[in-house]
């Protein structure tokens, strides 16, 4: 995610995309403006997708990225991070000035510029951001939010799971990108990568089948932190992770799995490859 690295490679011009060095860490502003939660979402409008520039193929840290250059639909689940004062005032991938108080975001491959709806499944909050930068370039992360965008989703405590859906030209023209008043938040179902195993998403921890339990916490923050760790160890489990409140404790579980053998195999892989311990449960 380092802008300087990308510039040296000659792949992108003027970007706030980042890999902070330990001695120069990013963080929140020292004196943020009041009422940032009242900052309005980005309002989608028709903007031409430029061929080349920030939308040309590029390489960062040995990985090659092919940005989308058409008005294509896009939906994905993954981890979100945010960037703040270190990059405030610096140029983004399309040459605009990064404003950590605006409703913007960086994405590795979405067209620049474009608009996306981002939802925090942990609390149901959702926002609309304008994508004008490239990044993040950490495994498992799919979007970097501005400071204010992360604040509105309650994601300032760290990396957390989100759902991202691009708003298409057709939705902008028709005005259907904004949900009607009182309409429940949409559920985004990303397309599975070709060749990926087909699984049902979480149906609720009371459903039958075989489950993995990772831990139980008095505070919700503890379960959320563990969910982040498990997702980073195996991003494919993200749609299956859920936090259940039972007997006054927040329990992190994944499932249901079609068989006890698959649940045990997943637990063994997480233990051996990610150092994450899990117990196999069976709900009836």
Task: Kindly describe this structure.
It is a single chain. By secondary structure, the chain is of the alpha+beta class. The chain folds into two domains: 3-174, Barwin-like endoglucanases (Beta Barrel), CATH 2.40.40.10; 209-283, 2-Layer Sandwich (Alpha-Beta Plaits). It has helices at residues 3-9, 147-153, 169-174, 220-233, 260-274; strands at residues 58-60, 63-65, 75-83, 104-106, 114-119, 126-133, 141-146, 160-167, 209-217, 241-246, 249-257, 279-283. Strands 3-7-4-6-5-8 form a six-stranded mixed beta barrel. It has a four-stranded antiparallel β-sheet with strand order 10-11-9-12, with helices on one face. Strand 5 (114-119) and strand 6 (126-133) form a beta hairpin. Mean pLDDT is 80; it is low at 1-23 and 185-206.
Task: Set down the secondary structure blueprint.
Layout: H1 3-9, E1 58-60, E2 63-65, E3 75-83, E4 104-106, E5 114-119, E6 126-133, E7 141-146, H2 147-153, E8 160-167, H3 169-174, E9 209-217, H4 220-233, E10 241-246, E11 249-257, H5 260-274, E12 279-283
Parallel strand pairs: 3-7, 4-6
Antiparallel strand pairs: 1-2, 3-8, 4-7, 5-6, 5-8, 9-11, 9-12, 10-11
CATH topology of the largest domain: Barwin-like endoglucanases
Overall domain count: 2
Low-confidence stretches: 1-23, 185-206
- What global shape is seen? globular
Summarize the structure.
17% of the residues lie in helices and 26% in strands. By secondary structure, it is α+β, with helices and mostly antiparallel strands. It folds into two domains: 172 residues, RlpA-like domain (Barwin-like endoglucanases); 75 residues, 2-Layer Sandwich (Alpha-Beta Plaits), CATH 3.30.70.1070.
């Amino acid at each position: 995610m380092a802008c300087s690295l990308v510039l040296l490679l000659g792949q992108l011009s003027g970007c706030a995309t980042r890999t902070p060095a330990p001695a120069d860490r990013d963080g929140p502003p020292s004196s943020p403006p009041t009422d940032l939660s009242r900052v309005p979402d980005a309002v989608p409008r028709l903007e031409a997708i430029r061929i080349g520039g920030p939308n040309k193929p590029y390489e960062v840290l040995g990985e090659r990225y092919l940005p989308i250059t058409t008005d294509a639909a896009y939906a994905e689940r993954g981890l979100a991070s945010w960037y703040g004062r270190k990059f405030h005032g610096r140029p983004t991938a399309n040459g605009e000035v990064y404003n950590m108080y605006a409703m913007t975001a960086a994405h590795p491959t979405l067209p620049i510029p474009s608009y996306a709806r981002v939802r925090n499944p942990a609390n149901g909050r959702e926002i609309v951001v304008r994508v004008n930068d490239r990044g993040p370039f950490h495994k498992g992360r799919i979007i970097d939010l501005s400071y204010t965008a992360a604040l509105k989703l309650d994601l300032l405590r760290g990396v957390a799971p989100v759902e991202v859906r691009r708003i298409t030209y057709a939705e902008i023209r028709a005005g259907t990108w904004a949900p009607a008043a009182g309409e429940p938040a949409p559920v985004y179902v990303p397309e599975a990568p070709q060749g990926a195993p087909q699984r049902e998403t979480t149906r609720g921890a009371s459903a039958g089948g075989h489950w993995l339990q990772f831990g139980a916490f008095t505070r919700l923050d503890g379960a959320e932190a563990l969910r982040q760790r498990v997702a980073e160890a195996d991003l494919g489990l993200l749609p299956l992770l859920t936090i259940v409140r039972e007997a006054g404790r927040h329990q992190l579980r994944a499932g249901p799995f079609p068989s006890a053998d698959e649940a045990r195999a997943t637990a063994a892989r997480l233990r051996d490859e990610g150092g994450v311990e899990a117990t196999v449960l069976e709900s009836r």
